[in-house]
Structure formats: structure tokens, C-alpha cells
Write a structure and sequence with these properties.
By secondary structure, this protein is of the alpha/beta class. It has helices spanning about 10-25, 35-45, 60-70, 85-95, 110-130, 135-145, 150-160, 180-195, 225-240, 255-265, 295-310, 310-325, 335-355, 365-375, 380-390, 405-415, 425-430, 435-445, 450-465, 470-480, 485-495, 500-505, and strands at about 1-5, 30-35, 50-55, 75-80, 100-105, 170-175, 205-210, 215-220, 245-250, 280. The protein is extended, with a radius of gyration of 32 Å.
């Protein structure tokens, strides 16, 4: 493995060189540089397998150097060293594709592990690379992944076998499938290929790009990309049977395909803003004019009321209404649509948690956030709403383990909690002693009768505070407290907030 060391402190450079030889005598230090500018020049000359670089250096820092290295098409691996533990450095390195980020002073064990990881990555890359030149789809796949530099052998193969010149235009057509990629990749690839075969005078190669959940068709030898774009918009999209979001851009050369795809794909979000039959064409999409996206506050309030009333049918209906809210014929910025989804669903989850919905506590909000931010089709956002609705309606059979006596006691609490019903009254109606009922209740539920009925009343109070505009004294009376001040004290002791503060938190 040929290694370039870029470090402005000579003592550290020498230390790294000695460590490398100690770890594996076969490691070859091909060159050393004392700043990023010199490191970039040496990389161009040496094309090393690995660059070990500091972050902060004069003239050009390590991350800026690596950015230039990768922009120029080098596929060298990198280990970034820094004496600073700030997340921004690590994030900057990760954006460049750097997987090894170590803090100085260098730990021998961590350094050895990082080198072993790099060796495995290089071995895996070599395994994936086609023998000699390889087939067309292998070449295109490696170019798009940034793992192949176009050499003379590659140029000769492409021209002689496919009449492809490195400097010609390449049309990139992306069919984004989303969370159904595994099930539908093959059928979408076949449908896209069949549709493109109807357009005369072009050659194309379709690739499965799993990390983008997409099929990519690279069209080459196309005399008129503008005409092909019109055909895709008005013919292909109207007859395409497999549902997908379709994007379109033109790369000016073979080496620009990776950059072209990276520029187009983020704009695939705009599929959320249009009807299904609209082509997302880059850079045209950057000129789209949008309408003001007004958040549906009234739907949120209605949803909160439905949650408080445990009206699961209404919840599902309102979530569907929210999904349809952005389909009114206007064009909204997709980022604003996603922000509205995050705001609405977060309000739903927090409200449900506030009134004790057991399903809400099971929702993994970070995962949900990722799903929303990665969505590029309306169906994906609608599926998220359906998922939330199903989770909220996931009612556990909490009485399944209770004996008949306790189930009857709970039923009476549910029916008469607002009257201030007591343990003695329930025991009398069940024809058992209060002592026996209290013992059995604690045994079956894990809490005392008084704690259970207090929590039940507070839960009902929460629902009324969030879902109604009743006065506090009216709510106190409805949940079985004749003294509003005592109700406020119990509510604060139980929740940590006064009723008025709790209500404000959800408004």
C-alpha cells in the first residue's frame, strides 16, 4: 500500500512513518508534504493508495486538499488526523467520503485498526473493479461510484465497442422507486428499458443504484437530448406502467456523470410538489416558482381533539386529510412540505404521549424523521401518516391478566370516576370487603386503588385540557374534583405542571 503523509509538523511526520513501518514493513511511504497545497501536487504525481493528513495546516488545510483530490477524480483513501474533537471536522471529513477520523496524539491500536479497515476497503474495491476494462455497465457503475479513472485502455474500449467518446454528452434518466426498491427494482428496470427502446436512434445502459433506491439509465449516442427530454415528458411518463419518480439531466462528458447525478438527485424531492406525470429536469427545476405554503393549523387542532377523545377513526381521517392538503394544484417547495409533515406528526405524537396513548411511546421519532426527509414521492409521506395512525390505534389488552373482580372494578372506575367514587363504594357493589378489593387491586395492577383512580382522573383531565376549551373549574368538576384548587395541586404533584401551564404547552 503506497501512502502519502501530509503533516506540517516534521516530528509528527517522522513519528507516523516509523509507526507505519512498525505496524507492517510492507507499507510504503511514497511521499511526504508539509501542507495541503504540496500534498495535492504530490497526489497528482504519485496517485497513492492512501493519504494520511492533518486538518489544520498552512496554505491549504487537509479537508480542502481532499476535496480537490476527489473532485479531480482520484479514488485514494484517506485517514484524517486532528488535535480537535469538534464535530464539524468529523462531519466535513465524512461528507468527503472519509471513513477514518482519528484524534491526535495517535493511539497505536486505533491507528492499526484504521489501516486494516483501509486495506479491506481497497481489497473490496479491487474485487469490484472489472478485469482489465470490463463490460460497459461495469465501467459506468465504477465511474458513477467514483472508483474508476478513465485511462487510455478504457477510452479505446468505449470507442471501439460502443462508439462512445469521453467528451460527448450523456443523458441520465433516474427512476426513483423509494422504499419498495427491493421488490420492484427488476420490474422498473425492465419497464424503463422497454420504454426507451421505443425511441429510435439512441443507445442506453440501465443500472441498479441501490443506495439511491433508483434505476439509472445512461443514454449515449443521442443526437438531440432536448428532443429526448420532451419525449420522456410527454410519451414515456404517460405510458410508464411502473410507478416511480423520474429525473432527467445531461452530463457534458463521461467524467461528469457522477457530478451530474449528484446534482440531479437532491432535486428529485420536487416530485412531492407536482403530479406524478411531471419530469424533474435539472437544471430547469431550479427556476420553478412556488406558492406560499401555509401550515394547516386547523387540522392540527382537530387532530389533537380526536386524539384526546381516543377517536381513532377520526384520527385516520384527519391524517388522510393532511396528506391531501398539499395536493391542491399549487406548487409548494418540497422542503416546506417536509417541514410541515415533521411539525404535524411531532404534534400528533407529543399530544398522544401527553394523554397516555401507549402506541405513541413506541414510535421511533428519529427513524420517522429520516423517512420524511428522505422521501421523494407522495406515497412515501402518505405511508408515514398511515403508519402513525396504525400505531396510535395499537390498543394493548391491559386487562388480559386481570381477574374478573379487578376488570369489573376498572369498568366502574371508567364509568363513575367523575362522581368521586371510592374504594368502599365499588367494594359494596361487588359484594366484597374493601380490604380484599384493595389487596387484589394492588396485586393485579402493581399500584394502589387510590393511585390508580387519581392517575385515571388526571389522564382524563389532560385530554380535556388539550382537546377542549373548558374552564379549569369545569374540568376539575368533570373528573371528580369539587375543589378546583385541590385539583390543581393534585395535577401539579402528578405531572410537575399546573393545569394552565400544561394546556399552554400543547397550544
Amino acid at each position: 500500500m503506497r501512502i502519502l503523509i501530509v503533516e506540517d509538523e516534521i516530528r509528527i511526520r517522522e513519528g507516523i512513518r516509523k509507526l507505519l513501518l512498525k505496524i507492517d514493513p510492507e507499507y510504503e511511504v511514497a511521499g511526504e508534504a508539509n501542507d495541503g497545497q504540496e500534498g495535492l501536487e504530490l497526489c497528482r504525481k504519485l496517485n497513492p493508495d492512501l493519504i494520511i493528513t492533518d486538518v489544520q495546516m498552512p496554505k491549504m488545510d487537509g479537508l480542502h486538499m481532499l476535496e480537490n483530490v476527489y473532485e479531480e477524480g482520484f479514488t485514494t483513501k484517506a485517514i484524517v488526523l486532528s488535535a480537535y474533537s469538534e464535530f464539524e471536522y468529523a462531519r466535513g471529513a465524512m461528507k468527503l467520503g472519509v471513513t477514518e477520523y482519528l484524534l491526535k496524539p495517535i493511539n497505536l491500536s486505533e491507528f492499526t485498526k484504521a489501516l486494516e479497515n483501509i486495506k479491506r476497503q481497497i481489497a473490496e474495491d479491487n474485487r469490484r473493479k472489472p478485469d482489465k476494462v470490463g463490460t460497459l455497465d461495469q465501467i459506468l457503475r465504477e465511474l458513477i461510484a467514483g472508483r474508476l479513472t478513465v485511462d487510455e485502455d478504457t477510452k479505446s474500449y468505449l470507442y471501439n465497442h460502443h462508439h462512445i467518446s469521453v467528451e460527448q454528452n450523456f443523458v441520465l434518466i433516474v427512476a426513483y422507486i423509494g422504499n419498495q426498491y427491493q421488490e420492484r427494482a427488476q420490474s422498473v428496470k425492465a419497464s424503463l428499458g422497454h420504454s426507451l427502446s421505443l425511441y429510435e436512434g439512441i443507445d442506453f445502459c440501465s443500472l441498479e443504484i441501490e443506495y439511491l433506491s433508483s434505476i439509472l439509465s445512461v443514454v449515449y449516442n443521442c443526437a438531440n437530448p432536448a428532443d429526448l427530454e420532451r419525449w420522456v415528458q410527454y410519451q414515456l411518463l404517460n405510458t410508464f406502467t411502473d410507478h416511480a419518480a423520474i429525473g432527467y439531466t445531461v452530463a457534458q462528458s463521461l467524467t461528469q456523470m457522477k457530478t451530474g447525478l449528484e446534482k440531479l438527485f437532491p432535486f428529485m424531492d420536487w416530485n412531492l410538489s407536482f403530479e406524478d406525470s411531471v419530469l424533474i429536469s435539472y437544471p430547469k427545476i431550479t427556476q420553478v416558482q412556488t406558492s406560499l405554503c401555509v401550515y394547516p393549523q386547523d387540522l392540527e387542532l382537530k387532530m389533537k381533539s380526536a386524539i384526546c377523545a381516543a377517536d381513532h377513526g377520526k384520527e385516520k381521517s384527519l391524517l388522510r386529510s393532511f396528506s391531501e392538503y398539499f395536493r391542491d394544484g399549487k406548487v409548494y417547495d418540497p422542503h416546506e412540505i417536509k417541514e410541515s409533515y415533521v411539525r404535524f406528526i411531532w404534534a400528533v405524537i407529543e399530544t398522544a404521549k401527553g394523554v397516555g396513548n401507549t402506541g405513541a411511546g413506541k414510535i421511533k421519532q428519529q427513524k420517522l424523521l429520516e423517512m420524511i426527509m428522505n422521501a421523494k414521492m407522495r406515497e412515501e409521506l402518505s405511508a408515514i401518516c398511515d403508519r402513525v395512525a396504525e400505531t396510535l390505534d395499537c390498543r394493548e389488552g391491559e386487562d388480559a391478566s386481570d381477574n374478573l373482580t379487578i376488570r369489573r372494578a376498572k369498568s366502574m372506575i371508567s364509568e363513575f370516576y367523575h362522581t368521586g367514587i371510592t374504594l368502599d363504594e365499588i367494594a359494596s357493589r361487588l359484594n366484597i370487603t374493601p380490604e380484599y378489593l384493595g389487596t387484589q387491586f394492588h396485586k393485579e395492577t402493581g399500584v394502589t386503588f387510590s393511585a390508580y383512580i387519581k392517575n385515571y382522573r388526571i389522564q382524563k383531565a389532560k385530554e380535556l385540557l388539550i382537546g377542549t376549551s373548558l374552564k379549569l373549574y369545569e374540568i376539575a368538576d368533570r373528573v371528580g374534583y369539587s375543589d378546583p384548587k385541590y385539583f390543581s395541586k393534585v395535577f401539579r404533584d402528578t405531572t410537575g405542571q399546573l393545569p394552565a401551564d400544561y394546556r399552554k404547552a400543547f397550544k
